[in-house]
Amino acid sequence: MTIITGVDVLDVRFPTSLSMDGSDAMNKDGDYSAAYVILRTDDPELAGYGFTFTIGRGNDIVSLACDRRAQPLVGLDVADVVGDLGAVYRTLKSDSQMRWLGPEKGVEHLAMAAVMNAVWDLAARVAGRPLWRLLSEMSPEQLADVADLQYLSDVLTRDEAIGLLREMMPGRAQRIAELESSGYPCYTTSAGWLGYSDEKLRRLCQEALDAGYRHIKLKVGANLDDDIRRLRIAREVIGPDVALMIDANQVWDVPEAIEWVTALAEFRPLWIEEPTSPDDVLGHATIRRAVAPIGVATGEHGMNRVLFKQMFQAEALDFCQLDSARLASINEILAVYLMAKKFGVPVCPHAGGVGLCELVQHLSIFDYVAVSGTLENRVTEYVDHLHEHFVDPCIVRRGGYVLPTAPGYSAQMHEESLARYRYPDGGYWRDAGGSQASTPSERACSGGEKD
Amino acid sequence: MTIITGVDVLDVRFPTSLSMDGSDAMNKDGDYSAAYVILRTDDPELAGYGFTFTIGRGNDIVSLACDRRAQPLVGLDVADVVGDLGAVYRTLKSDSQMRWLGPEKGVEHLAMAAVMNAVWDLAARVAGRPLWRLLSEMSPEQLADVADLQYLSDVLTRDEAIGLLREMMPGRAQRIAELESSGYPCYTTSAGWLGYSDEKLRRLCQEALDAGYRHIKLKVGANLDDDIRRLRIAREVIGPDVALMIDANQVWDVPEAIEWVTALAEFRPLWIEEPTSPDDVLGHATIRRAVAPIGVATGEHGMNRVLFKQMFQAEALDFCQLDSARLASINEILAVYLMAKKFGVPVCPHAGGVGLCELVQHLSIFDYVAVSGTLENRVTEYVDHLHEHFVDPCIVRRGGYVLPTAPGYSAQMHEESLARYRYPDGGYWRDAGGSQASTPSERACSGGEKD
After folding, report:
1. Which one of A6, A177, B297, B330 has the fewest CB atoms closer than 10 angstroms to its CB?
2. Spelled out in words, what is the top-level CATH class assigned to the domain B4-129+414-438?
């Protein structure tokens, strides 16, 4: 019998604002960070690793929430936990005092994501399988048991969920074989951060083409003239046939979004991502009707399955970009995938940040194998940074994620990375004076006014 | 010149789960708590007091978030802060790293509420007025300047907001005089907690009648037979003419809500409160269409103004129950009042908890004086507990809130209360062994499984 003996939570921050990686119209100076959870067991060879993603300040608050959220796991038998991953999820979720702080949104939900990601990583390690394969070997009934269907029965019952999954049972093995050959298609945002110069944009677009990408995404929304110039450069480099996506990171009100996107229509974007508040289901639906055939994409700040339910009901989305570290891990993500299947909306998960690519590859592979069974209109985000901190980093070849083979959810970071970027006492931050004050993000902040 | 010199944040918890005060179908054992913020100045006679409300565990997380959120205020000139209450709000809100943790929801938003509540308390103290009067003396343009209208322009522009407020300028003084005579009408939830016996329910309903209440609310949703029995008792005591409201605290899916409420229709509830997930705009709209003429009420977990915007757009609500400690204080609350005015939905704020009655009386009075100008279908919650901890407690006479006269937002707690209920080092908790483990809430929790 193996017991969960303790939980370590580390506040890990990378000084990405130094290079403007990740800069966009809303988030100009993020220091990509993780609230990183380790579930220790009395087997020194076995632990579960998970995290949620933030962009700097407040990562300590999320880390505290992770610690509190994980405590009920301590003392449990690992076999019980991984033997009923629906029950452990429901146990954590049922704390009504913690629930009050959301419910199911914000810091508490990020913590739930981190902790349950670690639980799923643990389960996959115990099974000796990469998580996508563990999920792909579960029966429709087992998957329905772990999925969080609360508040969804007006659009998806348990029986319907099982039915959708049963339909896709034939061909699971064949689809795995296909992906093992081709990889899962991805696109790159690495070219298009707002803080990059025109020359860097041009060079990175060319490099993306050369690397085999057929989809490229640019940030927009700070200045319309700049956006027109940058999109023109991108189209010059990539030509008319490669897909170009644009991402406004929530800066517009609904009427402004419609006006701005219309002004960029000549560049034929495949989608406009996060045109307005991520909470605005009806606003997204209005924008979608107005800017068609340009698609509407959102979801990286989609707080929970109830929001996605309504996005589907209101026909507000062309592309669902759920986030692996904001939704409450597989239990909730699975519910969103099942609803997306029912409503015929492709899921193109959000990635980038730190470690999100490592996680979402498992989700996309599982979706193709066991839920959607199609790659049509599917392309998963890939951003080329911070992978060196992971023990089992994702690998992209010719524009496709290579299927992971190591057991787990690919969430484990190197000990050396943790020692260096742990905040505020890791080597990097100690050298930097013990705080984020060495990065542009904090220097901008220290004046009191931020933009 | 007076400077904000520091911020104290206290984690204050009251062991309400001992008496089952506050018990409902979702929250069986809350320990009513506040993350309590004091903005200190270099004038020993001047400070700002604010808080947000939680129900126990996690109040430490919210307290940490309050501390982080308030730091940019330290060192500012009080005159600058209270002189532009829109600017200080936007400054705090503009931290994009913190924003990532919501945005504008969950723990971070609760913290924003607590901090800005303290800022508004400070402003009212500097003005020497109770907050409702400070607000009632602001011009339409001043009110529009402080209101957070971001993401709302598809339903409410700044010009429209000013127009709505201008319409109500005539008669402000007369409406104040009316309320000074009659008080602002309220209803009581004190009778109807789920954990109370039938005998206690019967007695409390009678006491509420005797105290002058014309509206009484009961918790429902745990067991249909129990609900039928309890509603029958209540109707027996209060007769056919007193309004009876029911509150399910989010326990149902949409189809279940419709079925359950239909089964209680014979008791003619005025409204069903929180029938399902507070995030489910479309679900509330569906329920509302199905259970009419029973009204639908929600809002105590309404996370932000974007959610309320959609509730109004989708015609999902008959009664808007915004929360004074979950929305980001007056800046955001004002936006919701203005939208409610435009859509013709009465606002009946959520109260109870600890200190919420103290806050919401100011909101309701201001609404009548300067926004809605009517009391039709308006009734503000009142729960009869924990008021003794406040320096300027609300006063209810014959079913109406008496207008507060002391300067501020009525948010300040007694020093002795803080010393006793500060967690975990206050006198009460030290005597209780230094943790919530002495209350039923934590005993239920310590087994690992909670309900």
Report:
1. A177
2. alpha beta
B239-267 confidence digits (pLDDT tens): 999 999 999 999 999 999 999 999 999 99
Pairwise CA distance, residues A176 & B17, whole Å: 52
In this structure, which amino acid lies at residue A10?
A: L
- CA angle at residue A70 from A68 to A75, to 5 degrees? 120
Determine the residue of chain A that is closest to B13 in CA distance: A97
Residue environment code for A277-306, b if the CB has 16+ CB neighbours within 10 A, otherwise e: bbbbbbbbbbbbebbeebbbbbbbbbbbbb
Task: Test A256 with B153 for CB contact under 8 angstroms.
Answer: yes
Write down the CATH superfamily of domain A4-156+414-439: Enolase-like, N-terminal domain (3.30.390.10)
Q: Which CATH superfamily is domain B167-401 in?
A: Enolase-like C-terminal domain (3.20.20.120)
Instruction: Please tell me if residue B244 touches chain A, with a CB cutoff of 8 Å.
Output: no
Residue whose C-alpha is closest to residue A78's, from A34, A24, A25, A121:
A121
User: B282 contacts in A (CB within 8 Å)?
Assistant: 281, 309-310, 313-314
A:260-289 residues touching chain B, CB 8 A cutoff:
276-283, 286
The ipTM estimated for the assembled molecules is: 0.95
Compute the nearest-CA separation of A420 from chain B (Å): 21
Residue boundaries of the structural domains of chain A: 4-156+414-439, 167-401
Kindly state the DSSP code that residue A275 receives in the 8-state scheme: -
The phi and psi torsions of A248 (rounded to 5 degrees) equal -100, -5
Q: Which residues of A touch B153 (CB under 8 A)?
A: 253-256
Distance CA B110, CA B399 (A): 30
Q: Which pair of structure tokens corresponds to residue B28?
A: 């069986």
List all residues of chain A from 126 to 185 with a beta carbon under 8 Å from chain B. Answer: 150-154
B409: tokens are 């937002």
For the segment A71-115, what is each residue's pLDDT rounded down to a tens digit?
999 999 999 999 999 999 999 999 999 999 999 999 999 999 999
Cite the DSSP H helix spans in B94-171: 96-99, 106-127, 131-136, 140-146, 158-167
d(CA B64, CA A176): 46
Chain-centre distance for alpha carbon B176: 22
Chain B residue numbers with beta carbons less than 8 Å from the beta carbon of A313 are 282
